[in-house]
Amino acid sequence: MKFGELFAQLGSAIAAFMFFKAILDQYIPTQLRISVGKHSGKLFSFLSPYIQITFSEFAGERLMRSEAYSAIETYLSTTSSAQARRLKAETLKNSTHTLSLSMDDNEEVADEFNGVKLWWASGKTTSKNQTFSFQPITDEKRFYSLRFHKKHRNFIIETYLSHVMKEGNAIKVKNRQRKLFTNNGSSWSHVAFEHPATFQTLAMDPIKKRDIVDDLTSFTKAEHFYSKIGRAWKRGYLLYGPPGTGKSTMIAAMANLLSYDIYDLELTAVKDNTELKKLLIATSSKAIIVIEDIDCSADLTGQRSPPVKKKDENDPLKRMAREETESKSASKITLSGLLNFIDGLWSACGSERIIVFTTNYVEKLDPALIRRGRMDKHVELSYCGFEGFKVLAKNYLDLERHELFDTIEGLLGEVKITPADVAECLMPRNIVGDAEICLKNLISAMETAAQVETEQISVFRQDYALIFRKLVKFFKPERVECNERTKLGGRFTHY
Ligand SMILES: Nc1ncnc2c1ncn2[C@@H]1O[C@H](COP(=O)(O)OP(=O)(O)OP(=O)(O)O)[C@@H](O)[C@H]1O
Ligand SMILES: [Mg+2]
Protein backbone atom coordinates (compact mmCIF):
# COMPACT_ATOMS: atom_id res chain seq x y z
CA MET A 1 0.00 0.00 0.00
CA LYS A 2 1.24 3.40 -0.90
CA PHE A 3 2.02 5.97 1.78
CA GLY A 4 -0.64 8.39 0.41
CA GLU A 5 -3.39 5.71 0.66
CA LEU A 6 -2.41 4.79 4.20
CA PHE A 7 -2.50 8.43 5.23
CA ALA A 8 -5.97 8.87 3.68
CA GLN A 9 -7.34 5.78 5.51
CA LEU A 10 -5.97 6.97 8.83
CA GLY A 11 -7.58 10.38 8.24
CA SER A 12 -11.00 8.86 7.55
CA ALA A 13 -10.74 6.62 10.67
CA ILE A 14 -10.06 9.70 12.83
CA ALA A 15 -12.93 11.57 11.18
CA ALA A 16 -15.32 8.63 11.84
CA PHE A 17 -14.22 8.49 15.53
CA MET A 18 -14.79 12.25 15.94
CA PHE A 19 -18.22 11.95 14.33
CA PHE A 20 -19.41 9.15 16.64
CA LYS A 21 -17.95 10.92 19.70
CA ALA A 22 -19.88 14.09 18.78
CA ILE A 23 -23.12 12.11 18.47
CA LEU A 24 -22.51 10.33 21.79
CA ASP A 25 -21.66 13.62 23.51
CA GLN A 26 -24.84 15.15 22.13
CA TYR A 27 -27.28 12.33 22.95
CA ILE A 28 -25.91 10.83 26.14
CA PRO A 29 -26.50 13.25 29.06
CA THR A 30 -23.41 14.65 30.85
CA GLN A 31 -24.54 13.33 34.24
CA LEU A 32 -24.72 9.82 32.86
CA ARG A 33 -21.25 10.08 31.33
CA ILE A 34 -19.73 11.33 34.63
CA SER A 35 -21.50 8.64 36.53
CA VAL A 36 -20.27 5.94 34.13
CA GLY A 37 -16.72 7.34 34.49
CA LYS A 38 -17.01 7.30 38.27
CA HIS A 39 -18.38 3.82 38.42
CA SER A 40 -15.84 2.46 36.01
CA GLY A 41 -13.16 3.98 38.34
CA LYS A 42 -14.86 2.35 41.33
CA LEU A 43 -15.18 -0.89 39.47
CA PHE A 44 -11.51 -0.74 38.59
CA SER A 45 -10.43 -0.04 42.17
CA PHE A 46 -12.83 -2.74 43.41
CA LEU A 47 -11.21 -5.26 41.12
CA SER A 48 -7.63 -4.04 41.77
CA PRO A 49 -5.98 -5.57 44.81
CA TYR A 50 -3.80 -2.47 45.31
CA ILE A 51 -4.21 0.60 47.49
CA GLN A 52 -2.60 3.93 46.73
CA ILE A 53 -1.69 6.80 49.07
CA THR A 54 -0.62 10.18 47.70
CA PHE A 55 1.71 12.62 49.49
CA SER A 56 1.71 16.12 47.96
CA GLU A 57 4.73 18.39 48.11
CA PHE A 58 2.62 21.35 49.19
CA ALA A 59 -0.45 20.20 51.05
CA GLY A 60 -3.59 22.39 50.72
CA GLU A 61 -2.99 26.13 50.43
CA ARG A 62 0.15 25.99 52.55
CA LEU A 63 3.27 27.63 51.21
CA MET A 64 5.52 25.48 53.35
CA ARG A 65 6.85 22.26 51.87
CA SER A 66 5.21 19.26 53.47
CA GLU A 67 7.37 17.57 56.12
CA ALA A 68 6.10 14.17 55.04
CA TYR A 69 7.04 14.78 51.38
CA SER A 70 10.56 15.84 52.24
CA ALA A 71 11.01 12.93 54.70
CA ILE A 72 9.88 10.51 51.95
CA GLU A 73 12.24 12.14 49.44
CA THR A 74 15.17 11.68 51.84
CA TYR A 75 14.09 8.16 52.78
CA LEU A 76 13.95 7.15 49.11
CA SER A 77 17.27 8.75 48.13
CA THR A 78 19.32 5.55 48.50
CA THR A 79 16.70 3.35 46.80
CA SER A 80 16.27 5.96 44.05
CA SER A 81 19.97 6.16 43.28
CA ALA A 82 20.06 2.35 43.06
CA GLN A 83 16.90 1.83 41.00
CA ALA A 84 15.59 4.91 39.16
CA ARG A 85 16.71 5.52 35.59
CA ARG A 86 16.26 9.29 35.76
CA LEU A 87 17.49 11.13 38.83
CA LYS A 88 17.52 14.73 40.04
CA ALA A 89 20.64 16.01 41.77
CA GLU A 90 20.93 19.05 44.01
CA THR A 91 23.36 20.28 46.64
CA LEU A 92 22.32 19.83 50.24
CA LYS A 93 21.11 22.88 52.15
CA ASN A 94 24.11 24.80 53.66
CA SER A 95 26.57 22.56 51.91
CA THR A 96 28.27 23.17 48.61
CA HIS A 97 30.07 19.86 48.32
CA THR A 98 27.44 17.22 49.13
CA LEU A 99 24.90 16.16 46.51
CA SER A 100 21.51 14.70 47.24
CA LEU A 101 19.86 12.46 44.63
CA SER A 102 16.16 11.88 44.23
CA MET A 103 14.09 10.24 41.49
CA ASP A 104 12.91 12.45 38.66
CA ASP A 105 9.20 12.91 37.84
CA ASN A 106 7.24 9.85 36.71
CA GLU A 107 9.72 7.28 37.97
CA GLU A 108 8.91 4.28 40.13
CA VAL A 109 11.04 2.36 42.62
CA ALA A 110 10.29 -0.68 44.74
CA ASP A 111 10.88 -0.94 48.46
CA GLU A 112 10.66 -3.86 50.85
CA PHE A 113 10.07 -3.73 54.59
CA ASN A 114 9.66 -6.75 56.88
CA GLY A 115 9.09 -8.91 53.78
CA VAL A 116 6.31 -6.66 52.41
CA LYS A 117 6.88 -5.30 48.92
CA LEU A 118 5.58 -1.87 47.90
CA TRP A 119 6.17 0.73 45.21
CA TRP A 120 6.84 4.45 45.35
CA ALA A 121 6.18 6.59 42.27
CA SER A 122 6.90 10.26 41.71
CA GLY A 123 4.54 12.41 39.67
CA LYS A 124 3.42 15.95 39.04
CA THR A 125 0.26 17.78 38.02
CA THR A 126 0.51 20.94 35.97
CA SER A 127 -2.07 23.70 35.94
CA LYS A 128 -2.15 27.22 34.45
CA ASN A 129 -1.74 30.01 36.95
CA GLN A 130 -4.67 32.43 37.19
CA THR A 131 -2.57 35.57 37.63
CA PHE A 132 -2.26 37.91 34.63
CA SER A 133 1.03 37.70 32.80
CA PHE A 134 2.35 37.95 29.23
CA GLN A 135 4.22 34.70 29.79
CA PRO A 136 1.89 31.80 30.66
CA ILE A 137 2.89 30.65 34.15
CA THR A 138 2.34 27.01 34.94
CA ASP A 139 1.93 25.76 38.46
CA GLU A 140 3.54 22.36 39.03
CA LYS A 141 2.51 20.25 41.97
CA ARG A 142 4.65 17.26 42.74
CA PHE A 143 3.66 14.25 44.73
CA TYR A 144 4.77 10.79 45.74
CA SER A 145 2.34 7.93 45.61
CA LEU A 146 2.70 4.71 47.51
CA ARG A 147 1.15 1.53 46.12
CA PHE A 148 0.77 -1.69 48.11
CA HIS A 149 -1.43 -4.76 48.34
CA LYS A 150 -4.61 -4.21 50.30
CA LYS A 151 -3.90 -7.15 52.61
CA HIS A 152 -1.04 -5.06 54.09
CA ARG A 153 -3.22 -2.00 54.74
CA ASN A 154 -2.86 -2.00 58.55
CA PHE A 155 0.81 -2.85 58.52
CA ILE A 156 1.61 -0.06 56.04
CA ILE A 157 -0.45 2.61 57.79
CA GLU A 158 0.52 1.73 61.32
CA THR A 159 4.11 0.58 60.99
CA TYR A 160 5.70 1.22 57.60
CA LEU A 161 4.75 4.89 57.25
CA SER A 162 6.07 5.81 60.68
CA HIS A 163 9.28 3.90 59.81
CA VAL A 164 9.61 5.99 56.63
CA MET A 165 9.10 9.27 58.55
CA LYS A 166 11.56 8.29 61.28
CA GLU A 167 14.24 7.05 58.89
CA GLY A 168 13.83 10.00 56.53
CA ASN A 169 14.16 12.52 59.36
CA ALA A 170 17.13 10.64 60.84
CA ILE A 171 18.94 10.72 57.48
CA LYS A 172 18.13 14.44 57.18
CA VAL A 173 19.59 15.13 60.63
CA LYS A 174 22.70 13.15 59.69
CA ASN A 175 23.20 14.98 56.40
CA ARG A 176 22.47 18.48 57.59
CA GLN A 177 25.21 20.97 58.26
CA ARG A 178 25.60 21.02 62.01
CA LYS A 179 26.10 24.23 63.95
CA LEU A 180 28.35 25.47 66.71
CA PHE A 181 26.56 28.13 68.72
CA THR A 182 28.00 30.66 71.10
CA ASN A 183 26.13 33.09 73.32
CA ASN A 184 26.21 36.82 73.02
CA GLY A 185 24.20 38.20 75.92
CA SER A 186 20.89 36.38 75.90
CA SER A 187 21.03 35.24 72.26
CA TRP A 188 22.92 32.62 70.32
CA SER A 189 24.91 33.09 67.12
CA HIS A 190 26.44 30.24 65.17
CA VAL A 191 29.02 29.06 62.66
CA ALA A 192 29.18 25.75 60.79
CA PHE A 193 30.48 22.97 63.03
CA GLU A 194 33.24 21.15 61.19
CA HIS A 195 35.44 19.51 63.82
CA PRO A 196 36.66 16.16 62.42
CA ALA A 197 37.20 14.38 65.79
CA THR A 198 35.60 10.96 66.18
CA PHE A 199 35.71 8.30 68.86
CA GLN A 200 37.96 6.24 66.56
CA THR A 201 40.59 9.00 66.61
CA LEU A 202 40.25 9.65 70.35
CA ALA A 203 43.11 8.24 72.40
CA MET A 204 41.79 6.66 75.57
CA ASP A 205 41.24 3.35 77.28
CA PRO A 206 39.18 1.24 74.80
CA ILE A 207 36.85 -0.18 77.47
CA LYS A 208 36.03 3.31 78.76
CA LYS A 209 35.53 4.51 75.22
CA ARG A 210 33.13 1.64 74.39
CA ASP A 211 31.19 2.39 77.56
CA ILE A 212 30.74 6.07 76.60
CA VAL A 213 29.73 5.28 73.01
CA ASP A 214 27.18 2.71 74.26
CA ASP A 215 25.85 5.15 76.82
CA LEU A 216 25.38 7.86 74.20
CA THR A 217 23.75 5.62 71.62
CA SER A 218 21.34 4.11 74.11
CA PHE A 219 20.47 7.64 75.30
CA THR A 220 19.39 8.61 71.78
CA LYS A 221 17.06 5.62 71.61
CA ALA A 222 15.60 6.07 75.08
CA GLU A 223 12.80 8.59 74.46
CA HIS A 224 10.12 6.14 75.49
CA PHE A 225 12.06 5.03 78.58
CA TYR A 226 12.56 8.61 79.82
CA SER A 227 8.89 9.42 79.43
CA LYS A 228 7.95 6.13 81.18
CA ILE A 229 10.04 6.96 84.23
CA GLY A 230 8.88 10.59 84.21
CA ARG A 231 12.23 12.25 83.55
CA ALA A 232 13.21 14.89 81.01
CA TRP A 233 15.07 13.34 78.08
CA LYS A 234 18.54 14.69 78.83
CA ARG A 235 21.85 13.48 80.20
CA GLY A 236 24.67 15.20 82.05
CA TYR A 237 28.35 14.49 81.44
CA LEU A 238 31.22 15.74 83.58
CA LEU A 239 34.57 15.50 81.80
CA TYR A 240 37.55 16.13 84.04
CA GLY A 241 41.29 15.81 83.80
CA PRO A 242 44.50 17.77 83.21
CA PRO A 243 44.85 20.16 80.24
CA GLY A 244 45.48 18.44 76.90
CA THR A 245 43.88 15.10 77.74
CA GLY A 246 41.06 15.39 75.19
CA LYS A 247 38.01 16.86 76.96
CA SER A 248 37.13 19.31 74.18
CA THR A 249 38.05 16.72 71.57
CA MET A 250 35.64 14.26 73.17
CA ILE A 251 32.79 16.80 72.99
CA ALA A 252 33.42 17.18 69.25
CA ALA A 253 33.48 13.38 68.89
CA MET A 254 30.17 13.15 70.77
CA ALA A 255 28.56 15.71 68.45
CA ASN A 256 29.85 13.86 65.40
CA LEU A 257 28.67 10.51 66.72
CA LEU A 258 25.14 11.71 67.46
CA SER A 259 24.87 14.35 64.71
CA TYR A 260 23.97 16.97 67.32
CA ASP A 261 24.57 20.73 67.32
CA ILE A 262 26.82 22.22 70.00
CA TYR A 263 25.87 25.18 72.20
CA ASP A 264 29.09 26.40 73.78
CA LEU A 265 27.83 28.41 76.73
CA GLU A 266 30.18 31.14 77.94
CA LEU A 267 28.88 31.68 81.47
CA THR A 268 30.94 34.82 82.06
CA ALA A 269 29.04 36.53 79.23
CA VAL A 270 25.65 35.80 80.83
CA LYS A 271 24.33 38.62 82.97
CA ASP A 272 22.03 36.82 85.34
CA ASN A 273 19.87 33.79 85.96
CA THR A 274 17.04 35.20 83.82
CA GLU A 275 19.35 35.55 80.85
CA LEU A 276 20.58 32.01 81.47
CA LYS A 277 17.01 30.75 81.36
CA LYS A 278 16.37 32.60 78.07
CA LEU A 279 19.43 30.99 76.55
CA LEU A 280 18.29 27.58 77.66
CA ILE A 281 14.84 28.02 76.13
CA ALA A 282 16.42 29.09 72.83
CA THR A 283 18.40 25.85 72.42
CA SER A 284 17.03 23.20 70.08
CA SER A 285 16.69 19.51 70.72
CA LYS A 286 19.40 17.12 69.50
CA ALA A 287 22.02 19.37 71.03
CA ILE A 288 25.02 19.27 73.34
CA ILE A 289 25.14 22.21 75.73
CA VAL A 290 28.71 22.72 76.89
CA ILE A 291 30.12 24.73 79.75
CA GLU A 292 33.92 24.49 79.55
CA ASP A 293 36.12 25.03 82.60
CA ILE A 294 33.13 25.22 84.89
CA ASP A 295 35.41 25.90 87.88
CA CYS A 296 36.59 29.20 86.32
CA SER A 297 33.33 30.18 84.61
CA ALA A 298 31.55 31.89 87.49
CA ASP A 299 31.62 32.24 91.23
CA LEU A 300 29.30 29.39 92.01
CA THR A 301 29.74 29.18 95.75
CA GLY A 302 26.00 29.47 96.32
CA GLN A 303 26.65 31.46 99.53
CA ARG A 304 24.06 33.95 100.58
CA SER A 305 25.03 37.40 101.92
CA PRO A 306 25.19 37.61 105.72
CA PRO A 307 22.22 39.18 107.58
CA VAL A 308 22.35 42.99 107.84
CA LYS A 309 23.16 44.36 111.27
CA LYS A 310 20.73 46.96 112.61
CA LYS A 311 23.42 49.62 113.18
CA ASP A 312 24.70 49.16 109.59
CA GLU A 313 21.18 49.72 108.29
CA ASN A 314 21.10 53.16 109.98
CA ASP A 315 24.46 54.19 108.53
CA PRO A 316 23.74 55.73 105.04
CA LEU A 317 27.25 55.05 103.70
CA LYS A 318 27.20 51.40 104.74
CA ARG A 319 23.68 51.05 103.36
CA MET A 320 24.74 52.44 99.97
CA ALA A 321 27.75 50.14 99.84
CA ARG A 322 25.57 47.17 100.70
CA GLU A 323 22.97 48.08 98.07
CA GLU A 324 25.69 48.41 95.43
CA THR A 325 27.12 45.02 96.28
CA GLU A 326 23.65 43.51 96.19
CA SER A 327 22.88 45.04 92.79
CA LYS A 328 26.19 43.69 91.48
CA SER A 329 25.57 40.23 92.85
CA ALA A 330 22.05 40.26 91.36
CA SER A 331 23.65 40.56 87.93
CA LYS A 332 25.57 37.34 88.39
CA ILE A 333 24.72 33.76 87.96
CA THR A 334 24.27 31.84 91.16
CA LEU A 335 24.72 28.19 91.84
CA SER A 336 20.99 27.74 92.23
CA GLY A 337 20.45 29.48 88.85
CA LEU A 338 22.80 27.02 87.22
CA LEU A 339 21.20 24.06 88.98
CA ASN A 340 17.83 25.24 87.68
CA PHE A 341 19.36 25.47 84.23
CA ILE A 342 20.45 21.85 84.43
CA ASP A 343 17.42 20.24 85.94
CA GLY A 344 14.81 22.78 86.96
CA LEU A 345 11.35 22.89 85.44
CA TRP A 346 12.57 24.84 82.41
CA SER A 347 15.24 22.31 81.58
CA ALA A 348 12.50 20.02 80.24
CA CYS A 349 11.28 22.50 77.62
CA GLY A 350 13.38 20.80 74.92
CA SER A 351 14.28 17.17 74.54
CA GLU A 352 17.21 14.96 73.59
CA ARG A 353 19.90 17.16 75.03
CA ILE A 354 23.24 16.44 76.60
CA ILE A 355 24.79 18.86 79.06
CA VAL A 356 28.57 18.65 79.37
CA PHE A 357 30.77 20.33 81.96
CA THR A 358 34.55 20.23 81.69
CA THR A 359 37.06 21.03 84.37
CA ASN A 360 40.72 20.58 85.21
CA TYR A 361 39.95 20.60 88.95
CA VAL A 362 37.02 18.36 89.78
CA GLU A 363 37.71 18.71 93.51
CA LYS A 364 37.01 22.45 93.34
CA LEU A 365 33.41 22.00 92.21
CA ASP A 366 30.42 22.23 94.51
CA PRO A 367 29.19 18.65 95.10
CA ALA A 368 25.59 19.79 94.44
CA LEU A 369 26.57 20.73 90.90
CA ILE A 370 27.97 17.37 89.95
CA ARG A 371 25.97 14.93 92.01
CA ARG A 372 24.74 11.82 90.17
CA GLY A 373 21.42 12.45 88.48
CA ARG A 374 22.55 15.94 87.62
CA MET A 375 25.84 15.00 86.00
CA ASP A 376 24.92 11.39 85.30
CA LYS A 377 28.29 10.30 83.98
CA HIS A 378 31.66 11.36 85.35
CA VAL A 379 34.47 10.68 82.88
CA GLU A 380 38.10 11.12 83.80
CA LEU A 381 40.41 11.89 80.91
CA SER A 382 43.90 11.24 81.98
CA TYR A 383 47.51 10.93 80.88
CA CYS A 384 48.33 8.85 77.84
CA GLY A 385 48.47 5.08 78.35
CA PHE A 386 49.81 2.52 75.88
CA GLU A 387 46.34 1.87 74.36
CA GLY A 388 45.87 5.60 73.81
CA PHE A 389 49.34 5.84 72.26
CA LYS A 390 48.48 3.04 69.80
CA VAL A 391 45.44 5.02 68.61
CA LEU A 392 47.60 8.12 68.09
CA ALA A 393 50.35 6.14 66.30
CA LYS A 394 47.70 4.72 63.96
CA ASN A 395 46.16 8.17 63.35
CA TYR A 396 49.33 10.16 62.94
CA LEU A 397 51.80 7.65 61.47
CA ASP A 398 49.63 4.82 60.11
CA LEU A 399 51.63 2.47 62.34
CA GLU A 400 50.07 -0.53 64.06
CA ARG A 401 53.29 -1.94 65.45
CA HIS A 402 56.98 -1.09 65.55
CA GLU A 403 60.04 -2.36 67.38
CA LEU A 404 60.17 0.85 69.46
CA PHE A 405 56.65 0.27 70.83
CA ASP A 406 57.98 -1.83 73.75
CA THR A 407 60.31 0.96 74.89
CA ILE A 408 57.45 3.44 74.61
CA GLU A 409 55.12 1.17 76.61
CA GLY A 410 57.72 0.97 79.39
CA LEU A 411 58.22 4.75 79.49
CA LEU A 412 54.47 5.47 79.43
CA GLY A 413 54.19 3.41 82.60
CA GLU A 414 56.69 5.73 84.33
CA VAL A 415 56.01 9.19 82.90
CA LYS A 416 52.90 11.33 82.96
CA ILE A 417 52.52 12.66 79.45
CA THR A 418 49.28 14.05 77.99
CA PRO A 419 47.83 12.79 74.69
CA ALA A 420 48.29 16.37 73.39
CA ASP A 421 52.06 16.15 74.03
CA VAL A 422 52.30 12.66 72.51
CA ALA A 423 50.36 13.91 69.48
CA GLU A 424 52.77 16.82 69.13
CA CYS A 425 55.78 14.45 69.03
CA LEU A 426 54.07 12.21 66.48
CA MET A 427 53.24 15.03 64.09
CA PRO A 428 55.21 14.16 60.90
CA ARG A 429 57.57 16.88 59.71
CA ASN A 430 57.56 16.04 55.97
CA ILE A 431 60.64 13.82 56.09
CA VAL A 432 60.68 10.53 54.21
CA GLY A 433 60.77 7.59 56.63
CA ASP A 434 59.48 9.99 59.25
CA ALA A 435 57.67 7.51 61.51
CA GLU A 436 60.78 6.22 63.27
CA ILE A 437 62.07 9.76 63.85
CA CYS A 438 58.71 10.69 65.41
CA LEU A 439 58.83 7.67 67.73
CA LYS A 440 62.41 8.52 68.73
CA ASN A 441 61.33 12.13 69.41
CA LEU A 442 58.63 10.82 71.68
CA ILE A 443 61.05 8.52 73.51
CA SER A 444 63.53 11.32 74.12
CA ALA A 445 60.70 13.67 75.27
CA MET A 446 59.58 11.03 77.77
CA GLU A 447 63.12 10.32 78.97
CA THR A 448 63.64 14.04 79.58
CA ALA A 449 60.31 14.21 81.43
CA ALA A 450 61.30 11.19 83.54
CA GLN A 451 64.60 12.87 84.46
CA VAL A 452 62.88 16.16 85.34
CA GLU A 453 60.34 14.26 87.41
CA THR A 454 63.08 12.51 89.39
CA GLU A 455 64.91 15.79 89.97
CA GLN A 456 61.70 17.47 91.10
CA ILE A 457 60.98 14.66 93.54
CA SER A 458 64.45 14.92 95.01
CA VAL A 459 64.18 18.75 95.35
CA PHE A 460 60.78 18.31 96.96
CA ARG A 461 62.20 15.76 99.38
CA GLN A 462 65.11 18.06 100.30
CA ASP A 463 62.63 20.88 100.97
CA TYR A 464 60.47 18.55 102.96
CA ALA A 465 63.46 17.42 105.03
CA LEU A 466 64.44 21.03 105.77
CA ILE A 467 60.93 21.96 106.88
CA PHE A 468 60.73 18.83 108.99
CA ARG A 469 64.01 19.64 110.71
CA LYS A 470 62.91 23.21 111.40
CA LEU A 471 59.67 22.01 112.92
CA VAL A 472 61.39 19.46 115.08
CA LYS A 473 63.94 22.05 116.18
CA PHE A 474 61.12 24.38 117.13
CA PHE A 475 59.24 21.84 119.24
CA LYS A 476 62.07 19.58 120.53
CA PRO A 477 65.46 21.30 120.24
CA GLU A 478 67.28 18.47 122.12
CA ARG A 479 66.09 15.85 119.54
CA VAL A 480 67.46 17.87 116.66
CA GLU A 481 70.92 17.57 118.10
CA CYS A 482 70.49 13.86 117.94
CA ASN A 483 68.96 13.95 114.45
CA GLU A 484 71.72 16.16 113.16
CA ARG A 485 74.18 13.70 114.41
CA THR A 486 72.44 10.88 112.66
CA LYS A 487 72.25 13.06 109.54
CA LEU A 488 68.52 12.81 109.14
CA GLY A 489 68.40 15.47 106.40
CA GLY A 490 71.21 13.81 104.49
CA ARG A 491 69.25 10.59 104.37
CA PHE A 492 66.33 12.37 102.74
CA THR A 493 68.56 13.76 100.00
CA HIS A 494 69.62 10.25 99.05
CA TYR A 495 66.11 9.30 98.04
N1 LIG B 1 42.62 11.81 74.05
C1 LIG B 1 43.02 12.41 72.92
N2 LIG B 1 42.92 11.79 71.75
C2 LIG B 1 43.34 12.37 70.62
N3 LIG B 1 43.88 13.59 70.56
C3 LIG B 1 44.01 14.26 71.71
C4 LIG B 1 43.57 13.71 72.94
N4 LIG B 1 43.83 14.60 73.91
C5 LIG B 1 44.37 15.65 73.33
N5 LIG B 1 44.49 15.48 72.01
C6 LIG B 1 45.08 16.42 71.05
O1 LIG B 1 45.50 17.54 71.80
C7 LIG B 1 44.82 18.72 71.45
C8 LIG B 1 44.26 19.37 72.72
O2 LIG B 1 43.24 18.56 73.28
P1 LIG B 1 41.91 19.12 73.96
O3 LIG B 1 41.70 20.54 73.58
O4 LIG B 1 40.80 18.18 73.67
O5 LIG B 1 42.33 19.04 75.46
P2 LIG B 1 41.47 19.46 76.75
O6 LIG B 1 41.45 18.29 77.67
O7 LIG B 1 40.18 20.03 76.33
O8 LIG B 1 42.40 20.58 77.36
P3 LIG B 1 41.96 21.83 78.29
O9 LIG B 1 41.71 21.29 79.65
O10 LIG B 1 43.18 22.69 78.25
O11 LIG B 1 40.79 22.48 77.66
C9 LIG B 1 43.72 18.32 70.53
O12 LIG B 1 43.64 19.17 69.43
C10 LIG B 1 44.06 16.93 70.07
O13 LIG B 1 44.72 17.00 68.83
MG1 LIG C 1 39.36 21.97 76.41
From TrEMBL:
Domain of life of the native organism: Eukaryota
Q: Which reaction does it catalyse?
A: ATP + H2O = ADP + phosphate + H(+)
- What residue spans carry the region label Disordered? 302-325
Query: Among its keywords, does the record have ATP-binding?
Result: yes
- Single biological process term from Gene Ontology: response to stress
The answer to whether the entry has keyword Hydrolase is yes
Q: Which SMART domains match?
A: AAA
- Which stretches are tagged as biased composition: Basic and acidic residues? 309-325
User: Per the entry, which co-factors are needed?
Assistant: Mg(2+)
Where is the AAA+ ATPase domain positioned along the sequence? Answer: 233-385
**Any GO MF annotation of the entry:** ATP hydrolysis activity
- Signal sequence span is none
InterPro entries for the chain: AAA+_ATPase, AAA_N_dom, At3g28540-like_C, ATPase_AAA_core, ATPase_AAA_CS, Mitochondrial_chaperone_BCS1, P-loop_NTPase
Which keywords, in A-to-Z order, does the entry hold? ATP-binding, Hydrolase, Magnesium, Nucleotide-binding
Q: Which family does it belong to?
A: Belongs to the AAA ATPase family. BCS1 subfamily.
Name-wise, this protein is AAA+ ATPase domain-containing protein
Q: Which organism is it from?
A: Erythranthe guttata
